[in-house]
């Protein structure tokens, strides 16, 4: 099924809205505890419980409107349900904090598997967005693979050594900024290995 074009603002709202809503809800509820079903839950776990269905609804709407979901969006949704659900069920915020680590490790390993086979799996999903020469795709794939492993390690360091509030800020803004900065630093590669337009 071909991807349908939708309003870019709506697309951004569906993709990033749940994360911003999680951040805002956490700031409001972080210092509170709630007794539900005779069990006490801290604000972080309560916000996580609300985030799971919100993320699923937004992902479902994105699929319905565009007719397409990327592999990362699907894997992210699955891991949110699994690890978010474990955090709520076991009343342990650590599981949800592990989720970014697993996401980056999974995609890092997938890219590494392709690299070892002499292929760029990244090219298969992004070729329409960035037409590059074969060598350019392999270089970019290797860099993104290393970047994913680096983000996985960084997330582990942050959630294991810092406060929950610090991790929430890091997850909401730090990881997003890291991805933005990474791709900004690849501009030289994009220019060097870009496919020339047909002169005719």
TrEMBL record:
InterPro entries: YciB (IPR006008). The keyword Lipoprotein does not apply. It is a multi-pass membrane protein. GO terms for cellular component: plasma membrane. The chain crosses the membrane at residues 12-29, 41-63, 70-90, 102-122, 143-162, 168-190. It is found in: Cell inner membrane. Pfam families: IspA. Keywords: Cell inner membrane, Cell membrane, Membrane, Transmembrane, Transmembrane helix. Its main location: membrane. Plays a role in cell envelope biogenesis, maintenance of cell envelope integrity and membrane homeostasis. Belongs to the YciB family. This is Inner membrane-spanning protein YciB. The gene is yciB.
